[in-house]
Amino acid sequence: MKSNSKPIKILIVSGNLNHYKIKMLDYFNENYNVNITILCGAGRIGQGDLDPDISSELYLKKINTLKKYFGFHPKVFFILLKQLSNYDWIQIPREKKNLLLLIVSYILVKVEKLKGRRIRIFTITHPDFGYKVGLLRIINIFFLKTFNRFYNKILFYTENSMNYAIKNQLVKDCKASYVNNTLYTKDIDRYYKFSYPSNNKKIILFIGRLIHTKRVDLLLKYYEKININLSDKGYKSELRIIGEGPFFDKINQAAKKDTSIKVLGGIVQERVISKHMKDVSLVFIPGDSGLSINHAFCYGKPYATIKSKNHGPEINYLKNGINGFLLSGDFNSDVSKICSVLISNNKEIFDNAYETGKSLSVDT
User: Fold this and answer.
1) Percent helix / strand / coil, the chain, rounded to 5
2) Are 95 and 64 in contact (CB under 8 A)?
3) CB-count burial class (<10 Å; 0-12, 13-18, 19+) for 1
4) DSSP letter string over 149-171?
């Protein structure tokens, strides 16, 4: 918490930060003895990224360049050269496109050390770059070990990923720690009181960017069949979609044909999201899933997605059949499973999801 001692000054450098992470940094800046500055790019144009809803004096420096060019932009290097000495810690994403940025930062830190100023570099990351076999695996390990030499501290998103990296000698255990990738939940607690959904209408919620990797096309295909099956059994259903992105027009076209599809647009304010979450029976994102898993659990909502190697580390929080569902990818089997879950309205699943959400709270 805030104290009278000198605050730790942290510079977060990133080509793109989603609104979840910026809100979390906003919370730390407001409630803990740190001064955080964010140096970021324009993100990913047309990919559904939303501006954050922040309240503190979090200092945001934005450079008008896309994420893929951020690590080479002259203005980024100019700011680091002029201002790096003002900070105690600097965070550089461990990505190949940021290697030059990392090396330059490392050199500047060494120069500051000669002047008697101690600055440390850290990152929050996944255990590896994803290649598992063959020549690509060998190259992957080389890059990982090269990157890791430049960091004073490497934080992993889960304990499992940290242990994996240490076991495979990708990082020294003295450099490794882990921190659960979680959410700022104060606004959720302020605007939402946990309750079970009504049994009158079966409501499915999609929340996230409307992009290909989220499998928005599959969402519509699944819902069309789920809607028919539930109707045949005497139940009404509804699909609510929160998000923006290149598939927004396709979603709108589907909503014109089927009035049970409600397109709500991009929303980041929990006071608004909470109103739409209240009667939701299931959060369903067929494609790549990340912090939306935590988001659902914080509201006590079970989460469903299709098994994939491309999910974020948050997938480890989902326990199949306990607080959510890992679907097989077989269309008919998955539809049958979702319909069964919606009809049963099992309160234990909601309780488990809510308990998981509380365990992942930043305060916990």
Assistant:
1) 45, 20, 40
2) no
3) exposed
4) TT-SEEEESSHHHHHHHHHTTSS
**Do 305 and 205 touch, CB atoms closer than 8 A?**
no
CA nearest to 37, candidates 97, 87, 73, 108: 87
CB atoms within 10 A of CB 42: 16
Give start and end residues of each alpha helix (H) in 115-247: 134-148, 159-167, 186-191, 216-232
Rounded to the nearest 10 degrees, the angle between the axes of helix 347-359 and helix 291-298 is 120
- Angle formed by the axes of helices 99-114 and 134-148, nearest 10°: 20
Distance CA 239, CA 262 (A): 6
Q: In what order do the strands lie in the sheet with 176-178?
A: 59-62, 34-40, 8-14, 89-91, 120-125, 153-156, 176-178
Q: Collapsing DSSP states into helix, strand and coil, what is residue 217?
A: helix
Q: List the pLDDT tens digit at each of the 364 positions of the chain.
A: 566 788 999 999 988 777 777 778 887 888 788 999 988 887 655 554 545 554 545 566 778 888 888 889 999 999 999 999 999 999 999 888 889 999 999 999 999 999 999 999 999 987 665 556 678 778 888 888 888 999 999 999 888 889 988 988 888 999 999 887 778 788 899 999 999 998 889 999 999 999 999 999 999 999 999 999 999 999 999 999 999 999 999 999 999 999 999 999 999 889 999 999 999 999 999 999 988 999 999 999 999 999 998 898 889 899 999 999 999 999 999 999 999 999 998 999 999 999 999 988 776 5
